[in-house]
Records
---
Amino acid sequence: MAFRQFKPEHGHTYHGSKAAPCTTRGDDDRCFVCDGGLGWCVVCGGAEASLPTSCPGRKMSADLADLVQHRHVDFLCGEWVLVEPKQEQRPPPLPHDRLAFLTELLADAEASTRLTDWEDKFCDDLRDRVTRYSIWTEVSARQWEIIERIEGKLHR
């Protein structure tokens, strides 16, 4: 079979390319791969999300293609490697006094008629985030400036 002539360092050989012309067109002269713009390597069998970074030079098993698709393994520099899972970065927790301040301010904002529509929307969004994430709510420096401005408006 012609697949053996392709080596891993040559990268993927895509279905429909000059090196691997389409042979799957049906009677209606349509090919779901070529016409759909899908990436499918005729050497390793990887397609779209199951394409490793480099072509391993031979067919992957279905199990191996699943591992590639779910980003557990990849083929790099001529060998299979395990992919390290990304560590979720959490913001530092809000100190309890800041959380108490936000909770009180948001309750005051909900009862107030002094805020603009934009400020009301900002407070609604922040209230939803505080309810959902509690001490893990991320608040940027710019958002703290807005919160301080709203506090000044509410407690004049």
Note: Residues 2-82 form one domain.
---
Amino acid sequence: MTEDINSFTFDFAKEVQILTKEIGPKAANMLFANVEVVTHGLAPDIDYKDLIAGANVTEQFKRTANVEALLQLLWHPSGSSFALQPDATTELGAVVLNKNTFTKNFFGPQYAALSSLRTLYHEAGHVLLPGGDKGDALHPYSEAAGDAYAALKLLQRFGNEAIPFISMTSWIRSLNTLAGDSEHFTTPVLDKIIANAQSGRRDFTKCGNDEIVKLARDYAEQWTPSAEAINETRPFLWNEHNKPKKLRQLFASTILSSYSNGLAFLIAAKVVQPFLKTGMIYAGKHRYFTKKTRAAYQSAIDARLDGMKIDGLFNNASERPPVTPAAVARALPVILPRNRKTLVFNPQG
């Protein structure tokens, strides 16, 4: 039986207990920490016992080769959450949540609890999926695997009521890519998971954690954009100084122009979706297109998708039948919760 997503509240210790039980024996080597932003380095008198949770983790933490070094890693200057996979310096994998991370309020305070849970799942996914710590601007597999695991865990727990939240996350990943963060371009992976959940092709509520891990790996391996596609996309998204173009300029050069490559077009077509409907509340202000502008962009998107060649954009060699333009078109819109007609986004959380 799935949980009610609207009444969910986030309790770190409780969620770690639930997750470690679901993970099983592997969780014995996982450290979970929930920390505040530390602006001047790690406090020397910090008591790590108050920061950690997990099965048998305290004793293992004491046996770590370099406790001081591991504690230092709990400080992250950006105030973001992160994961560490086991390596030569420690026998533990670490999942570190920053309680003050600004990303948890991207969609408004009512989504803070769900965002914290998604972050916990995402960082745990990095530890559970081999190779998940290897990523860069041309190889977003690492983040795709973490996002896939988080999305599947949310669907496992809340059923298809989690789809709007996952869809809004997918939209943000495309927006971030326009801003230069292609390492987190996980939109195609998330949209494929959403499509399979909507179609009933998979009932993720019946999957155990081991199956979720396997599925997350499969989705990330098949639907992460190829390095070649991302590299060819960069000139269309960023200027000669490797800085993101202004949004209106970027929309015009990727959607209204027939010269942009396929992946650049798809990224921009995803980001523009809220403006084709009621607009969006961005940083507290209503941003929208005129009726004439909406029609121009929608017409350009429809024309470009008609007969568009999708082959080669993703690592989906095993996909049969191949991706169709119609399937891509269905994946573009942002799915909102039933009680929302307009996307709300707070860039500073």
Note: Confidence is low (pLDDT under 50) at residues 37-48, 53-68.
